[in-house]
Structure formats: structure tokens, C-alpha cells
Design brief:
There is one protein chain. The chain has ten helices and twelve strands. By secondary structure, the protein is α/β, with parallel strands linked by helices. Strand 6, helix 5 and strand 7 form a beta-alpha-beta unit. It is elongated and about 60 Å long. The strands form two sheets. The protein has a six-stranded parallel β-sheet with strand order 2-1-3-4-5-11, with helices on both faces. Helix 1 packs across helix 9. The chain binds alpha-L-arabinofuranose. The site of alpha-L-arabinofuranose has 12 residues, from helix 1 and strand 9.
């Protein structure tokens, strides 16, 4: 747990009439997951009475760094951000630390040895998500299986970790081979484009493992255009479980989805209030998540909020 008092704006912030100001540097609007995450953050800030300064980095690290610098200049009470990529944050986070503005990592982690640069990290266990995807495949596959992996943004924590967990889980089955692995940048257009090329270079693909629903949905379009049946001729595994993904799963075009929960807003605002007051918070808050088969998707689809 992080110590009380150090580096926080402290004082009477959060008391009536003295609104906490949060600077939030979002990754972008690349996916259905991200849209749901942004909505959750905005709504929860409103409910918690926190003034939110919001910026969209359009998936570019330099934009996020600029946004964080501007929040430091504006002397916000707390900065929260979801880092586009894992590395390259130490300099700007040191500036925040020197300005005594606490930082919360949300959704994605950074790769830094200096853990004093942030108070806590709220988000999913992406390695575990990859493991769940790999375990399902290892449990259902028989005989040789050629996998095409559609990776998320190069250098992003979920892309690195979802690959790691998946590889770990399929290691026990040497018949399962990743024959191609390329980034589709977590977008539907990216997934479609990469899949079109992969279908030409690897006509023997049996399974697509997409690091998110959007890329999986893009792959479905490419597979159909190539005259094949997604979910049948080529099985598809994705991560997220946003509504469009769950619909495709219910329709049998996706075969399995590992959930990644974007509704982090309420927990984020609770943590923000605590760090601003100088209270201690856990170093790591992990989101609870599940998995879905076609049958399960059919049952929950109508109540799916995002
Ligand atoms: O960091 C979470 C990931 O980012 C989601 O799984 C993906 O859809 C998003 O773009």
C-alpha cells in the first residue's frame, strides 16, 4: 500500500464546495471497449462530483505526454491515464511527482522500475485474459491447428500480455501453432486489413486469435469476403465482450470471448478521492472478469450494457 500523505495535493480537497479536479489522458477512441470506458469515466466523475478534464490522444504517446504536461501546468489535483504503450513515461511522471500531483494508472500499466511514479494501477490482468483464450483453444482443439494472431497496438500492455498468456496456455499442445502474428492496432479496420493479407499469405489458417472484439469483427468481414464462413471454416477467439462482439458470438461467427471490463469509472473515482486526501490505497486493483461461449452469449446479450 502506498504511504499516506506523500505527494498528494492533500488539504481539504473533496470537502463540500471544493471540487477535486482530475486530468484524464485517454488512449483514443479505437474500439467499442474504449468508448464504453470513456463513458464510464465521464459518468462516474459526474456522480462523484469530480471535475473532469478529458483528452483523447488518438493512440499517440506524444499526445498523451502533452496532455499530462498540460494537466501539471493547470495544477489539477490528480492525474489518471491509460498509457498507449508501456515504456517511455518516467520523465513526464517525474514532473508530476515533483509538482506533487498524484498519478493513477487505469486500464493499462507502464513498464518502469520506479513504482513511486504512480499511486496505484486499476485494471484487468491481461496475461490471465490471454491464458483463458489459450486454455479454451487447448481444450477444444484436436489435431494440428494453425493460429493467426491479430495483435493489439505494438508495445501496449494488453498486446504484450495477451500474447504472453496465450502462448503459455497453448505450450502444452505442440499441435497448436501460431503461424502468423501481426498488429491490427485494436481497430476494426486494422483487423480487416491484416486478415485480408493473412488469408492470401496463409490459406491454411484454422483459428484467429484477436486481441480485441473490434479486430475480430474486422477479420469476420475479410473472411466472408474471401468466401469462407467465420466461426465454422475459421474459428475466432477474441477479448473484450462488447455488445457487437457478443452479438457475433451469439450468431456463431465468433466462437469464444474472454471478457475485459471497461466499466472502471466508479472504482477510479473512489481511488482518486483517497489519493487526493492522502489516504493509502492498494498498489494494484484487479478487475473481475469472465468468459463467454455462444450459448452463454445468447443468454446475456439482451442485458449487455455496452
Ligand atoms: O486496454 C484495453 C484494450 O484497449 C481493449 O481490450 C481494447 O479493445 C482497447 O482498445
Amino acid at each position: 500500500a502506498c504511504g499516506a500523505g506523500d505527494g498528494s495535493a492533500g488539504g481539504s480537497k473533496g470537502a463540500a464546495g471544493d471540487k477535486i479536479v482530475m486530468g484524464f489522458a485517454q488512449v483514443g477512441a479505437e474500439s467499442g471497449w474504449r468508448t464504453a470506458n470513456t463513458k464510464s469515466v465521464r459518468e462516474s466523475a459526474r456522480t462523484a462530483g469530480i471535475e473532469l478534464k478529458f483528452s483523447d490522444a488518438q493512440q499517440k504517446q506524444e499526445n498523451q505526454i502533452k496532455a499530462i504536461r498540460s494537466y501539471i501546468q493547470q495544477k489539477v489535483d490528480v492525474i489518471a491515464f491509460s498509457p498507449v504503450v508501456e515504456t517511455g513515461w518516467d520523465a513526464v511522471l517525474l514532473e508530476a511527482k515533483r509538482a506533487k500531483i498524484p498519478v493513477i494508472l487505469t486500464d493499462r500499466a507502464i513498464d518502469s522500475t520506479d513504482t513511486s511514479l504512480y499511486k496505484t494501477f486499476l485494471g484487468s490482468d491481461f496475461v490471465e485474459e490471454g491464458r483463458k483464450a489459450g486454455k479454451w483453444l487447448a481444450g477444444t482443439a484436436s489435431g494440428p491447428v494453425n493460429v493467426a494472431e491479430l495483435q493489439g497496438t505494438t508495445g501496449a500492455a494488453p498486446a504484450i500480455d495477451r500474447q504472453k498468456g496465450f502462448k503459455e496456455a497453448i505450450a502444452q499442445k505442440p499441435d497448436i501453432k501460431i503461424v502468423a502474428s501481426q498488429s491490427g492496432d485494436f481497430t476494426r479496420a486494422g483487423g480487416k486489413q491484416v486478415m485480408e493479407a493473412l488469408l492470401r499469405s496463409h490459406p491454411d489458417i484454422d483459428v484467429v486469435y484477436a486481441h480485441n472484439d473490434d479486430m475480430g469483427l474486422g477479420a469476420i468481414e475479410a473472411i466472408k469476403a474471401a468466401g469462407k464462413k467465420p466461426g465454422t471454416d475459421i474459428k475466432i477467439i477474441t477479448v473484450d465482450a462488447v455488445k457487437a462482439g457478443m452479438q457475433a458470438l451469439a450468431d456463431g461467427e465468433i466462437n469464444y470471448i474472454v471478457e475485459c471490463n471497461p466499466l472502471l469509472g466508479d472504482q477510479l473515482m473512489d481511488l482518486a478521492k483517497k489519493v487526493v486526501k492522502g489516504e493509502s490505497v492498494p498498489e494494484r486493483v484487479v478487475t473481475e472478469e469472465t468468459t463467454f461461449t455462444t450459448e452463454q452469449a445468447k443468454k446475456v446479450l439482451k442485458d449487455r450494457k455496452y
